[in-house]
Design goal:
Strand content: under 5%
Radius of gyration: 20 Å
Helix content: 55-70%
Shape: elongated
CATH class: Mainly Alpha
Structural class: mainly alpha
CATH topology: Butyryl-CoA Dehydrogenase, subunit A, domain 3
Oligomer: single chain
Number of strands: 0
Number of helices: 5
Largest sheet: none
Length: 150
């Protein structure tokens, strides 16, 4: 009888309703960081390559978790998936902070500006797609590119 109760408890694992949204937001934040870095005039030596690879791996983990959420229940170890995914999401702010600290100080203001621009463009594109009947425009102030920005 105890085994049946344990199995019922294990199979009824509740995935948080906001998990998909949290994963998508994390991926968008990383995308904004990657695109902003790509637009900056930084050499490979100025970008902490090991930490950048770790962020790319984290993004791949989030993509895999999103894929796993769409799989048939019972085909994956959902308890492990949930544990690992929540841990990875919780660690993202400190991982990106470690990465940013290693960048040259001259890059920080430009990086923040470019990230905000990318995020605004992405959110407006999503809004346009989801509200086709409304005319939505993203109002990004015209900015002259900061020094060192491609």
């Amino acid at each position: 009888m105890r085994d049946a109760l344990d199995m019922a408890h294990r199979s009824s694992l509740e995935i948080p309703g906001d998990l998909r949204a949290r994963l998508e937001v994390a991926r968008l934040d990383l995308l904004a960081l990657f695109r902003a870095l790509d637009r900056m005039d930084l050499s490979a030596q100025e970008i902490p390559q090991r930490l950048l690879r770790q962020l790319f791996e984290r993004d791949a983990d989030y993509a895999e978790a999103l894929w796993a959420l769409d799989q048939v229940e019972g085909s994956l170890d959902r308890r492990t998936l949930l544990r690992d995914t929540l841990n990875a999401l919780d660690q993202l702010p400190s991982a990106t902070a470690r990465f940013r600290i290693q960048l040259p100080s001259r890059a920080h203001p430009t990086l923040e500006l470019l990230e905000a621009s990318v995020l605004c463009q992405k959110s407006c594109n999503v809004a346009k797609l989801s509200n086709r009947s409304k005319r939505i425009r993203c109002m990004i102030p015209s900015l002259s590119p900061p020094v060192g920005v491609r």
